[in-house]
Design a protein that fits this description.
10 strands, binds iron/sulfur cluster, Rossmann fold, 209 residues, six-stranded parallel β-sheet
Length: 209
C-alpha cells in the first residue's frame, strides 16, 4: 500500500475506532491483511464455534481457511445440505464473522441483505460478532454509507450472483422491488447494547465490494 494512503488510512482508522468506542463497540486497526488475520485469531479462542455470512473480506485475509484448518468448530454453511440448519446453528455460535457494505467514520455500520441471515445474526444471536472491514468501505457520513451500499456494493453483488435487478444491468440503484432484490432488509448498527459483543477490524487495504 502506498505510504501516503497508509498514513491517511491510519488517521481515518483512529477516528473510526473512537467512534466505535463511543457506540460500545471495539475497533482495531491492521496495517495489512496478515496483521488483520493475526488480530482476528487472537480474538477467537481455540475451540470456539464460528459461523459467517457471505463475506469476501473474511476470505481475503485468509481467516476462513485458518479457522477450517485450526482447532475450531467452523460452521461451513456451504458444506450443509440443509441450509436452514446451518443458519440456525449460526445464531447459537460463539462468533459470527462478517464484513459490512459500508460504515461511517464515526462507527455506524450499514448492511443490506436479501435472505436476512447475515443481518439477523449481526443484530442478535451469536455471542460475538467480528467485522473485517477494508478502509475502502469507510465513508464520511450515513448518507454516503447508504449510497455506497446501494450504488457500489449491491450492483457488484447482484452481478456476482447473476440476479435480475436494475442495478446488475445499469450499475447503480433504482430502488427496485424486483423479486431478486438484495435490499430486503437494511440494518444500521449504531450502538451495541452488550459491551464486547461487536468488534471491527479495520484493514489498510481494499477488501470486498
Ligand atoms: S434496491 Fe434493487 S436496484 Fe437498488 S441496489 Fe437494491 S437490488 Fe439493486
Amino acid at each position: 500500500m502506498d505510504a501516503n494512503i497508509t498514513k491517511r488510512n491510519e488517521l481515518l482508522a483512529q477516528k473510526t475506532i473512537e467512534g466505535l468506542k463511543s457506540r460500545n463497540m471495539e475497533g482495531y486497526y491492521a496495517s495489512s491483511k496478515e496483521k488483520a488475520l493475526k488480530i482476528a485469531l487472537e480474538l477467537i479462542p481455540e475451540g470456539s464455534s464460528v459461523s459467517m455470512g457471505g463475506a469476501m473480506s473474511v476470505h481475503e485475509i485468509g481467516l476462513s481457511e485458518a479457522l477450517k484448518e485450526g482447532d475450531y468448530n467452523f460452521i461451513d454453511r456451504d458444506a450443509y445440505e440443509d441450509k436452514r440448519q446451518a443458519m440456525l446453528m449460526a445464531y447459537d455460535a460463539d462468533f459470527f464473522l462478517s464484513s459490512c457494505n459500508a460504515m461511517t467514520d464515526d462507527g455506524i455500520l450499514v448492511n443490506i441483505d436479501g435472505n436476512a441471515n447475515r443481518v439477523s445474526a449481526i443484530a442478535q444471536g451469536p455471542k460475538h460478532v467480528i467485522f473485517i472491514v477494508g478502509m475502502n468501505k469507510v465513508c464520511s457520513d450515513i448518507d454516503s454509507a447508504m449510497k455506497r451500499a446501494r450504488n457500489v456494493a449491491a450492483p457488484i453483488n447482484t452481478q456476482r450472483f447473476g440476479l435480475n435487478t436494475p442495478c446488475s444491468k445499469k450499475g447503480t440503484c433504482f430502488n427496485c422491488k424486483s423479486p431478486d432484490t438484495i435490499c430486503c432488509q437494511i440494518l444500521i448498527t449504531r450502538f451495541s447494547r452488550h459491551k464486547g459483543r461487536i468488534s471491527v477490524i479495520l484493514v489498510n487495504d481494499d477488501l470486498g465490494y
